[in-house]
Amino acid sequence: MEPFLRELAEDGGAEARLTLVALAAVNTGGAGPETAADDADGAAAAAAYARAAEGLVGTLPEWVRRMGRVRCEGAWYGKADPYGEQTLASLSFRYENGKEPHILVVGIDQPNGGLAVDALVEEVKFLDDLGLWPADPGVVAGRILDAFELGDRIMGTAVANTLPQVRPLAIARARGVPGLVRAPGDDTMSRFDELPDLPGAREAFERLAEFIGDRPLWWSPARVSQFLTSWLPREAIMSDAAVAAMPEVLRAWTRFSGDQPAVLRQIDEDAPRLPSLMADESLAGISKRIAQRRL
Asked: Facing residues of 20 across strands?
């Protein structure tokens, strides 16, 4: 880095000066360091970029002074596809002079834990085709940063070819959002108020909430089948009433989650087997077997 910065400084041309200012604007310290050493390295690099660009802004066109100086004007979040296997987190920005409105959109994978797999910067009208709902900017920015940090911890993550180019800008934009909330919860489950009036329905919904966890927008035929034929028999201890109520609870949750016909068909296919699967002790996992012995 240092030899490159020296070469730019010695060049002194408009392009070199612009490059130094741009590098200082986008290098503000790492992308969510995992250790104190990483944090120190990121701060040292940011300081080096800032020193190299010191005093250069005034020698360049006026628009350079606004580089990186944006304010967040809104946020949106929702499904990228009918089953929520990928979610979209979007933030809108505008520069200090009120011009150049734009949005950042980050695709967050759900089946593999919630890591960032794609990102782009577009005009605000791009939102019209996404079908997202308004959300708290600090929460959405926190989700974006969490998604990038998760991806940093996983080797060999499959991401879009365009992600590396947008990643530094996406992180810098998200970090600058006021009221940033890291590891934000999701209130989707708490907004569900269509529980069937059946014995055992509340107990059945509690098991569903346990399975869904912090990724409530992901609800696909494959996930339904996994829940009914694998997770429940392996992990859950349920009353007969809850087992009987589970199909209707799942249908109600599916209507709330987008009412996808393929999901409803999967429930119809797998639900009749649930009582026999729950009664098959050979399918129980270790934790379930230990819990059953304590009852």
From this structure: none
Contact 26, 68 (CB under 8 A): yes
Pairing assessment for the beta strands 116-122 and 70-79 based on DSSP bridges:
unpaired
Summarize pLDDT for 192-240 with one digit per residue, the tens: 999 999 999 999 999 999 999 989 999 999 999 999 999 999 999 999 9
Q: Return the closest-CA partner of residue 104 out of 9, 22, 169.
A: 169
Distances (CA, A) of 22 to 6, 122, 257, 280: 15, 20, 43, 63
Compute the 3-state secondary structure of the chain and give helix, strand, coil in percent, each to the nearest 5: 55, 15, 35
| Residue 69 and residue 92 in contact, taking contact as beta carbons nearer than 8 Å | no
Question: What is the distance between the alpha carbons of residues 79 and 92, in angstroms, rounded to a whole number?
Answer: 18
Residue 58: is it exposed, middle or buried by C-beta count within 10 angstroms (0-12/13-18/19+)?
exposed
Give the Cα separation of 170 and 159 in Å (integer): 15
User: What's the rounded Cα separation, in Å, for the pair 62 and 57?
Assistant: 8
Strands of the sheet with 70-79, listed across from one edge: 116-122, 102-109, 86-95, 70-79, 133-134
Question: Within a 10 A sphere around the Cβ of 265, how many other Cβ atoms?
Answer: 12
Q: Give per-residue pLDDT as tens, 238-278.
A: 999 999 999 999 999 999 999 999 999 999 999 999 999 99
Q: What confidence category does residue 105 fall into, taking pLDDT thresholds of 50, 70 and 90?
A: very high
How far apart CA 63 and CA 112 sit, in angstroms, is 41
Distance CA 185, CA 139 (A): 9
Other C-beta atoms closer than 10 Å to the C-beta of 111 total: 14
Cβ(98)–Cβ(74) below 8 Å = no
**Structure token pair of residue 202:** 């509340």
Residues 6+ apart with CB under 8 A from 109: 85, 86, 115, 116, 117
